[in-house]
Write a structure and sequence with these properties.
This protein is mainly α. The protein folds into 3 domains: about 120 residues, Rossmann fold (3-Layer(aba) Sandwich), CATH 3.40.50.620; about 110 residues, Serine Threonine Protein Phosphatase 5, Tetratricopeptide repeat, CATH 1.25.40.80; about 160 residues, DNA Cyclobutane Dipyrimidine Photolyase, subunit A, domain 3. The chain has 19 helices and 6 strands. It is globular. The protein binds flavin-adenine dinucleotide.
Length: about 450
């Protein structure tokens, strides 16, 4: 028997291919690797059902590709990982780096408790947060120059899955049963290859929730079932119009992670300090109506119901419902961000908080506060035939075409609420509050 063993601690990288940390583990363990996932209650308890369900399904698929030998343990990684490493006499523990605020602190503690090295290789991003700096050596706060520098910096080519691994076994917990389809590395790669056939339309159609024209790759990206580098390599080979626009969106994901790594407090606090003084209302009945999709604004309700029943929401609709919560209902974005994290299958602290800040006008590179979405106008523009709202709001199905966006003008709808606020008044009030902090 060979005398070295490496531990591969899987976190947000639930795949074998294009996983440099795993290749390092295989090299360090001379082919003998123990793969572990830690069910950390601090993350698990906060996740919400859609994320828990997807995670469990993805772990089943990962375990299948480890010949059933993925070791699952429950507890605080600061205890679990050093104990497991000692149990199997590991010479090193391998991870892909986590740049989030919790992950950074956790990994520092694990490293301090381990008797062998904790080796971080790669990250869930094409370019790790913190890498891209401007000419003064400082990180970017604004997307467009970041994006230019990101393109210029470039990234490594994807790497293959390890050719042969002897997966070491150890005692662990049974994974809960899973009923979710479409999780795991294989499904992610298939989903991506299918989407590539449609990417040409991405630029023209991505704002249309009725067309279902986006990739939904945020879900496999969240769990690391695919690495963005794999996607970027395919996009570079694709001479289709939409590929550039798609690459830019992947850069937004990286920019959000970069900003959160620079400003860990941005998870829940505004990046623009004057917004600390912004007057918000307590989340009460209006917030409950927003969560339940019963605001009387068809696009908002369609979105919130899609979110509740599928754990997914189209980007344009995420922007409109977020704006409505902050600027029409005057509720602090952190309550909406928390609701999203609980409800979304792709719920991700960096992408979520930084996008909420962008919509709420308090991010570093945010939409100007005074640009307030009209929830009806957005519906008419991006769901022009009313199909998206009829799909998710059955009370409106009797209304033809775009009339579904304004039921009050067309005889109303049984069982459907009247608008809970007057948008023009709410808008004036939002601007008044903004004037007070400028
Ligand atoms: P596509 O349009 O196919 O885009 C391709 C990929 O680019 C996405 O999978 C995603 O990885 C990335 N991307 C696209 N738009 C953005 C963006 N604005 N910011 C960051 N990355 C982006 N995304 C999450 O992954 N998790 C979240 O928790 C999350 N919360 C959000 C909250 C709000 C208020 C808003 C406005 C946006 C949020 N987003 C979040 C970003 C974006 O809405 C989703 O990534 C996107 O809708 C996912 O669908 P898709 O994969 O079909 O996107």
């Amino acid at each position: 028997m060979r005398d070295v063993t490496a531990v591969m601690w899987f976190r947000r990288d639930l795949r074998l291919s294009d996983n440099p940390a795993l290749l390092d583990a295989v090299a360090a363990g001379d082919g003998r690797v123990l793969g572990v996932f830690v069910m950390d209650s601090r993350l698990w308890d906060r996740a919400g059902d859609p994320r828990r369900e997807h995670l469990v399904a993805s772990l089943h698929r990962l375990s299948d590709s480890l010949e059933g030998r993925l070791v699952v343990r429950r507890g605080d990684p600061v205890d679990v990982i050093p104990a497991l490493a000692a149990e199997v006499g590991a010479h090193s523990v391998h991870v892909s780096a986590d740049h989030g605020p919790y992950g950074q602190a956790r990994d520092a503690q694990v490293e301090a408790s381990l008797k062998c090295p904790l080796v971080a290789t790669g990250s869930p991003y094409a370019i790790a947060p913190g890498r891209i700096l401007n000419q003064q050596g400082r990180p970017y706060q604004v997307f467009t120059p970041y994006f230019r520098a990101w393109l210029e910096h470039g990234w490594r080519k994807p790497v293959d899955a390890p050719a042969r691994v002897e997966w070491v076994n150890a005692a662990g917990e049974e994974l809960p049963d899973s009923r979710v389809d479409g999780a795991g590395e294989q499904a992610a790669l298939e989903q991506w290859q299918e989407y590539l056939k449609r990417v040409a339309q991405y630029d023209d159609e991505r704002d249309r929730p009725d067309l279902d024209s986006t990739s939904r790759m945020s879900i496999p990206l969240k769990y690391g079932e695919i690495h963005p580098r794999t996607m970027l390599a395919d996009l570079a080979r694709t001479r289709r119009a939409g590929a550039d626009a798609y690459r830019r969106e992947l850069a937004w994901r990286e920019f959000c992670a970069d900003l959160l790594a620079q400003h860990p407090e941005a998870a829940w606090k505004p990046l623009r300090p004057e917004f600390e003084r912004m007057e918000y209302d307590e989340p009460g009945a209006l917030f409950d109506a927003w969560c339940a999709g019963r605001t009387g604004f068809p696009l908002i309700d369609a979105g919130m119901r899609q979110l509740a029943s599928t754990g997914f929401l189209h980007n344009r609709v995420r922007m409109v419902v977020a704006s409505f919560l902050v600027k029409d209902l005057h509720v602090h974005w952190k309550f909406g961000a928390r609701w999203f994290l609980r409800s979304l299958r792709d719920g991700d602290l960096a992408s979520n908080s930084l996008n909420w800040q962008w919509v709420a006008g308090c991010g570093a590179d945010a939409a100007p506060y005074f640009r307030i979405f009209n929830p009806v106008g957005q519906g008419l523009k991006f769901d022009p035939a009313g199909e998206y709202v009829r799909r998710w709001v059955p009370e409106l199905r009797h209304l033809d075409g775009k009339t579904a966006h304004e039921p009050w003008k067309h005889g109303g709808a049984d069982g459907y609420p009247d608008p809970i606020v007057d948008h023009a008044d709410a808008r004036r009030e939002a601007l008044r509050r903004y004037d007070a902090i400028r």
